[in-house]
Specification:
The complex is a heterodimer of chains A (111) and B (113). Chain A is mainly beta and 111 residues long. Chain A has no helices and eleven strands. In chain A, strands 2, 4, 5, 6, 9, 10 and 11 form a seven-stranded mixed beta sheet that branches. In chain A, strands 1-3-8-7 form a four-stranded antiparallel beta sheet, with no helix packed on it. Chain B has 113 residues and is mostly beta strands. Helix content of chain B is 0%, strand content 53%. In chain B, strand 7 and strand 8 form a beta hairpin. Classes of the chains: A mainly beta (111), B mainly beta (113).
């Protein structure tokens, strides 16, 4: 079955620690995205990538980093510089001007 | 930048009735609008896309309209069922070649048996 897989489903971060969220897609989509969702808020774009080895900052990129070494994979690192990382993180992929396909998210909490 | 407003945070409706959800955008007319469904703890799932030159789109019990004069899209679910209870998100895309979507905060629909 084609789709997007995010792992882990739940993640805990200690103070001062970097954590990496995984996102893999087998839909052969060119573009991939990372969003953050907070209670009562819409999805906010963190980073997106249109092609391999290229990515752009979204609206709230500070404290996050990404890489796109393979078409299928777009991992997100939440660095210690992100002071309020507790949120639900969603990864998506799409072709140009087509609907986005989402994974089932990773819920990040602070220990 | 574009802003998307979904007027109701929550909407309760009796089973069998038609649910109507509203999405307003504030700045430029988007090339298209999309509607997604999100269940608790899950990622959004795409439902319908309507382009700026289309007035209406239908899919089974779902209907979407796009009024560029009012800067508004309406999303209708006819003959609503308890299984339709979810949060519905509106999103718009700015134009050709752009990958970015702007999302509204969503409307939580509860269909009461």
């Amino acid at each position: 079955d084609g789709g997007i897989t995010q792992s882990p489903k739940y993640l805990f971060r200690k103070e001062g620690q970097n954590v990496t969220l995984s996102c893999e897609q087998n839909l052969n989509h060119d573009a991939m995205y990372w969003y953050r969702q907070d209670p009562g808020q819409g999805l906010r774009l963190i980073y997106y990538s249109q092609i391999v080895n290229d990515f752009q900052k979204g609206d709230i990129a500070e404290g996050y980093s990404v890489s796109r070494e393979k078409k299928e994979s777009f991992p997100l690192t939440v660095t210690s510089a992100q002071k309020n990382p507790t949120a639900f993180y969603l990864c998506a992929s799409s072709m140009t001007n087509q609907p986005q396909h989402f994974g089932d998210g990773t819920r990040l909490s602070i220990l | 930048s574009q802003k998307i407003e979904q007027n109701s945070e929550a909407l309760n409706i009796q089973e069998g009735k038609t649910a109507t959800l509203t999405c307003n955008y504030t700045n430029y007319s988007p090339a298209y609008l999309q509607w997604y469904r999100q269940d608790p703890g899950r990622g959004p799932v795409f439902l319908l896309l309507i382009r700026e030159n289309e007035k209406e789109k239908r899919k089974e019990r779902l209907k979407v309209t796009f009024d560029t004069t009012l800067k508004q899209s309406l999303f209708h679910i006819t003959a609503s069922q308890p299984a339709d209870s979810a949060t519905y998100l509106c999103a718009c895309g700015p134009g050709a070649g752009s990958y970015q979507l702007t999302f509204g905060k969503g409307t939580k629909l509860s269909v009461i048996p």
